[in-house]
Design brief:
Strand order of the largest sheet: 1-4
Strand content: under 5%
Number of strands: 4
Mean pLDDT: 83
Distance between the termini: 17 Å
Low-confidence stretches: 452-469
Radius of gyration: 21 Å
Shape: globular
Order of helices and strands: HHHHHHHHHEHEEHHHHHHHHE
Length: 469
């Protein structure tokens, strides 16, 4: 578990560590605001789209093998990111970095669901959620130190020693779960999903850049967005088709009420995390003109509180009334963001600290409990698919958060010329999104806590385990 968490931490760290480096990239790479937002979105999109497929690849070839391949690709792409001399080269390298992360992430949840019985899964997910929460919001602090003292390139170079350690621990400690069957691949489903997500995100994020008009020839932004929605609709119809022998996303899994609601809430947390920290990092370096290091220090309380609270919340998430953990978490996140909306200004930024504490506690109460509640009652035969879908919904939320944030910032900035007003507008949108998360959490069905007697019934993952020598 510890070995997997090292690599998992690194992949999630890279979703936010670039935030404090965006202003430096604009200067050093002669990039536009839209270019640097794509540095974030390219990674998130390449991370999100293949998750359903990489989960199945892990089922076919073994999660340890897929994790190792993904980690190697991630490290090579990190080196390419640090060596990039233009925005286009950096965006391209970030795509490959995201693909590596996509190969790794489903395997961590696969190990948890296969190796930990229900009675012990809450504690394991507490650690997993703690790593997720800590990595997602500690990026700005570490990034601030590296950008201030070494340069933005080092937010990518730092992955190299961490990745080498992760590879060594993988081969030394992680068991080899061998698949007992070779699932088919839904090639058409992969194509439809990739096209749908890619076109939708491109259209939303680049709308203002193209003034919501023509992109190339007769092709317009509206047509690109409509095509993305159409491809995603076709993807859903294909997943439901009787002609699809083994769909990427078996729709029967959504008959499970908690799993369906959990994925809605998961999209919300993804949108919110990205939607808060990207504009906040840009604001802190643009209006009060804080250094990258000071920007990281302002957001550090959220990192600390999220990591600590997630451990405790994970252990409490086995209780029957566990839904009140994410309900409280979403409410605290909303309170923190609402307070920040009114406190943004060019004066002392330490007034934001109570808001950051509330935001961090809220995130810690959401991350691991939400995972446990969503997957606890899934049929064991659907755990592999459920893991892929759940990871995809989180990353899809991240991608949407990045795209929508970019759109709102550019639209309001073009209309008002005031960056503070633009950031406040993006925060108001997040508050509306969090209402959906609270409603989804309230609708969770209470489920009796798993007992230790469930362990014997659920401990066999159906995969032979080969321990490393």
């Amino acid at each position: 578990m510890y070995a997997l968490c090292v690599g998992f931490f690194m992949t999630l760290l890279d979703t936010t560590i670039v935030n404090v480096a965006l202003q430096s990239m604009i200067t050093d790479l002669n990039a536009s605001l839209n270019d640097v937002i794509w540095v974030v979105s390219a990674y998130l999109l390449a991370f999100a789209v293949p998750l359903l497929l990489t989960g199945r690849l892990g089922d076919r070839y073994g999660p340890k093998r897929l994790y190792g391949i993904g980690l190697t690709l991630f490290l090579l792409a990190s080196l390419a990111c640090g060596l990039a001399t233009s925005a286009d080269a950096l965006i391209a390298a970030r795509v490959f970095q995201g693909l590596g992360a996509a190969a790794m992430t489903p395997q961590t949840m696969a190990f948890i669901t296969h190796l930990f019985p229900p009675a012990r899964r809450g504690a394991a997910l507490g650690m997993w959620g703690s790593v997720a929460g800590l990595a997602t919001v500690s990026g700005p602090l570490l990034g601030g130190v590296l950008v201030t003292h070494l340069g933005w390139e080092w937010i990518f170079f730092v992955n190299l020693p961490i990745g080498v350690v992760a590879l060594a621990l993988l081969f030394a400690w992680v068991p080899d779960l061998r698949p007992n069957r070779a699932p088919r691949f839904d090639v058409l489903g992969v194509v439809l999903c990739c096209l749908g997500l890619g076109l939708l995100v491109f259209g939303i994020q680049n709308g203002e850049h193209y003034q919501w008009g023509r992109v190339a020839g007769p092709l317009t932004i509206a047509e690109i967005i409509a095509a993305g929605v159409l491809f995603l609709a076709l993807f859903v119809f294909w997943q439901a088709s009787a002609r699809n022998p083994e769909p990427l996303m078996p729709l029967r899994i959504f008959r499970n009420r908690n799993f369906s609601l959990g994925n809605v809430a998961n999209v919300v947390i993804g949108i919110t995390v990205t939607g808060v920290f990207v504009p906040l990092a840009l604001f802190l370096q643009t209006v009060p003109k804080l250094s990258p290091l000071m920007t990281g220090l302002v957001t550090a309380p959220a990192s600390l509180m999220s990591g600590v609270v997630a451990i405790v919340a994970g252990r409490l998430s086995n209780r029957a009334d566990a839904k009140y953990l994410p309900i409280t978490g979403f409410a605290l996140m909303a309170a923190g963001i609402l307070a920040m909306t009114f406190l943004l200004g060019d004066g002392s930024q330490w007034v934001l600290l109570p808001s950051m504490v509330a935001l961090g506690i809220g995130m810690g109460l959401v991350f691991s409990p939400l995972t446990n509640i969503s997957t606890r009652t899934l049929d064991r035969s659907l755990l592999g698919a459920g893991s892929g879908i759940y990871n995809t919904s989180r990353q899809f939320g991240n991608v949407l958060g990045s795209a929508v944030t970019a759109a709102v910032l550019q639209i309001v900035l073009a209309a008002t010329g005031d960056f503070t007003t633009a950031v406040r507008a993006s925060f108001y949108l997040l508050l509306a999104v969090l209402v959906v998360g609270i409603a989804a959490a309230f609708a969770f069905r209470q489920v009796a806590a798993p007992s230790v007697t469930d362990s014997a019934r659920a401990s066999d993952p159906g995969l032979p385990v080969t321990r490393p020598s």
